[in-house]
Design brief:
mainly alpha, Fumarase C, Chain B, domain 1, Fumarase C, Chain A, domain 2, 2 domains, three-stranded antiparallel sheet, elongated
């Protein structure tokens, strides 16, 4: 069943399905009516020669230049040409689809003044698989993601390039093969197509559900390590976390308790009164990441169902209002919080990994999880790899959202740099799969040295790990194990196996 766009009803999961699973979309009749009504108002004002930013004037520093009626009709095409000024490799197909989908929903609010054919063409492109070539870099995240969205807009008029059925083609050819008529932009159309932070928004809509799956995977890895190290489980007591009150910590502790339920490993003697912070503080740290995740989701879904555009046309009032609703800072703050959360939890994972490796800290496990220490190095070098991944995440966690560089002759003298934030948060999340994967390999190896059974849920996770990574009896090259496990974590197979035992994690 197609996802219905009303302008106000979408979730990040809707966009993920459209972007990654090619879910079809359609525009609600009431949204189509709003678009037409707003366009009628816009055309009325154009005919009256009213001065409107980006419609009858130039943009940026040229906003004081009023166009002639003849120029008004031609201007939108030149605006698209000039803004398609990015650089670098193309954005991935899922990000392109997410960006287009989020832009359609903006236009469905009926405040942008474009013709209905713009929305109809974008919908057809998504439904038939025409994916514009949009360079990854060039957006400063204010006035929207103008460079990549400019490349998207070229394809609607049969220019630029697009991927269609796996082939990179001239835009006109891609549209022809998909059976989509090309258009000519008229007054307001071009700017309405590109003037929002929709690539940043698209990135966010993909990363937010993905990050929650990763956070649940973290809880599984943490539980397995805690079992292997025979922790004092009082640090997970529900009363403890409710007494402080952070919802993320309450949820994280509850997940770990459920995963560890029935563990015979935790029935062994020799528990400490208090474990190290990397174990005892896991719910507080990973819980804070969940609370940051909620903030990122809230900011992204407000953007998804709001109107990031300029100017806005209000038919009820017959007024055009200019402002800065394209500004990417709210999204950038959400993505910065998400990236910081992921990188911090990755640090926590590496510190738990260290405790599995270090014979002075591992409650009787052999050093580096090998019985042949000296002759063999075991998983020593995999920890090096985890350290490098965490170090790279830390560099990427430096904020970009406060890194404004003025543009457009200082007319646009504060920009969000939200695209940089989105790109680096994507990199942080990609690296995080490797960090958790290495901890999971190590915890499975640790289970092999224990003489008691882990919990049923941890055993289910262990069995998936062993499908892909064999016990390390004597040294072998580990890069293949590490790469495989990173992809297994990304795939969700371990999470699915655990949830079959304990039910859906929160």
């Amino acid at each position: 069943m197609a996802v219905l766009f009303t302008g106000k009803n979408l979730t990040v999961e809707d966009i993920e399905r459209i972007a990654r699973h090619n879910e079809q979309i359609e525009v609600a009749p009431e949204a189509a009516e709003r678009i037409k009504r707003c366009r009628a108002m816009c055309e009325k004002k154009i005919e009256a020669h009213e001065v409107m930013y980006g419609v009858t004037t130039g943009i940026g520093e040229f906003s004081e230049v009023v166009l002639t009626p003849e120029q008004t009709q031609q201007y939108q095409r030149y605006l698209i040409y000039s803004h398609a000024a990015g650089i670098g490799e193309p954005l991935s197909e899922d990000v392109v689809r997410a960006a287009i989908a989020t832009r359609i929903n903006v236009l469905c609010n009926g405040l942008s003044g474009c013709r209905a054919v713009i929305v109809e063409t974008l919908v057809a492109m998504l439904n038939r698989g025409v994916h514009p070539v949009m360079c990854k870099r060039g957006s400063v995240g204010a006035s929207g993601d103008l460079s990549p969205m400019g490349q998207m807009a070229l394809v609607l008029m049969g220019e630029g390039e697009a991927f269609y059925k796996g082939e990179r083609l001239p835009g006109a050819e891609a549209m022809k093969r998909a059976g989509i008529p090309i258009i000519q932009y008229e007054a307001r159309d071009g700017l309405a197509t590109i003037n929002g932070s929709n690539v940043i928004s698209g990135y966010g809509c993909l990363m937010i559900p993905e990050t929650m799956r990763w956070l649940k995977m973290h809880d599984i890895a943490a539980a397995m390590t805690m079992e292997a190290l025979n922790i004092n489980t009082s640090c997970l007591d529900d009363r403890l976390h409710k007494a402080r009150g952070y919802p993320g910590a309450v949820t994280c502790a509850a997940n770990i308790r459920r995963i560890m339920e029935g563990s015979k490993l935790l029935q062994r003697p020799g528990k400490r009164v208090q474990d190290a912070y990397s174990l005892r503080s896991t719910p507080q740290v990973a819980g804070a990441a969940r609370d940051s995740w909620r903030f990122a989701r809230e900011m992204t879904e407000i953007e998804l169902n709001g109107v990031g555009d300029n100017p806005l046309f209000f038919p009820d009032d017959e007024e055009v209002v200019t402002g800065a609703n394209f500004q990417g800072t709210p999204l950038a703050f959400g993505m910065e919080a998400l990236g910081l959360a992921i990188s911090t939890v990755s640090v926590l994972s590496e510190r738990r990994l260290n405790r599995l490796m270090n014979p002075a800290l591992s409650a009787g496990l052999p050093g580096f999880l090998t019985k042949g220490g000296g002759m063999f190095s075991g998983l020593m070098l995999s920890q090096y790899t985890a350290c490098q991944l965490v170090n790279e995440q830390r560099v990427l966690s430096h904020p970009a959202a406060n890194g404004s560089i003025p543009a457009a002759a200082d007319q646009e003298d504060f920009v969000s740099m939200g695209m940089t934030t989105a790109i680096k948060t994507r990199q942080i999340l990609d690296l995080a799969y490797g960090v958790l994967g290495i901890e999971l390999i190590a915890s499975a190896q640790a289970f092999d040295f224990r003489d008691a059974e882990p919990s049923p849920a941890s055993k289910a996770a262990y069995e998936v790990i062993r499908k892909y990574v064999a016990h390390l009896d004597e040294d072998r090259p580990l890069y293949d194990d590490n790469n495989k496990m990173a992809e297994v974590v990304r795939s969700g197979e371990i999470l699915e196996a655990v949830e079959k035992v304990v039910g859906p994690l929160d």
